[in-house]
Amino acid sequence: MWSTQFPRAIHIAEPGFGNTLANSDFLRRYAKRLLRSARSTRSSEALPILRRIVAMQVTPEISVAELHPLRGSLQLKHVLHTLAREIGFPSWESCARQVDARPSSLLDRYRFDLGMFRDFESNWFPDMATAQSWQHRHGGYLIAYGAQAVAILAH
Fold first, then answer.
1. Which of 7, 72, 94, 125 gives 131 a disulfide partner, CB atoms 3.0 to 4.6 angstroms apart?
2. 138: left (phi over 0), alpha (psi -120 to 50) or beta
3. Residue 1 — very low, low, confident or very high, per pLDDT cuts 50/70/90?
4. What is the pLDDT of residues 17-75, one digit of tens each?
5. Can you give the pLDDT at residue 76?
6. Nearest 5 degrees, angle CA 63-CA 66-CA 70?
7. If DSSP codes are grouped into helix, strand and coil, which group holds residue 28?
8. Rounded average pLDDT over 73-79
9. Residues contacting 122, CB < 8 A, separation 6+
10. What one-character-per-residue DSSP string does 84-151 give?
């Protein structure tokens, strides 16, 4: 059976994103990285971030197509609000006050994006209920990824 615990030897693919970082500090660093991507001249790099900003209704009056030519005007606060809403907070201010008291597993989706679990096999599921059902039979460390879930398989 695969381990259901957080893998001990995760791969630190990005400098500055170690395990000892407070949740709020991790989110700030991750937001800065996303902001650089959102402002990129390469649409393939910018559009996924712009879609997330629009999906979290940080800019509810503007569509992705309208935001794309204005992406240079995006600020760190827009990305921080996006991340806060993705993890269940109404705003960055609320998130910044409370997120450090939450378990670090709350940010595993972002660690996954950074490639910290790339040394492990992974299985994707359409939702957390399906993933949990599979986990009961096979094990694996589950990470919520939007509406989907991924099982990280580590011995």
1. 125
2. alpha
3. low
4. 666 789 999 999 999 999 999 999 999 999 999 999 999 999 889 999 999 999 999 99
5. 98
6. 125
7. helix
8. 97
9. 150, 151, 152, 153
10. HHHTT-SSHHHHHHHGGGS-GGGGHHHHHHTTTTTTSEEEEESSHHHHHHHHHHHB-EEEEETTEEEE
At residue 153, what are phi and psi to the nearest 5 degrees? Answer: -105, 110
Task: Tell me the two tokens of residue 69.
Answer: 């030519």
Q: Is the pLDDT assigned to residue 83 strictly greater than 70?
A: yes
What amino acid occupies position 137? R
- Looking at this protein, which amino acid is placed at residue 42? R
- Which residue has 């030897």 as its token pair? 9
DSSP assignment of 65-79, as one string? HHHGGGGGG--HHHH
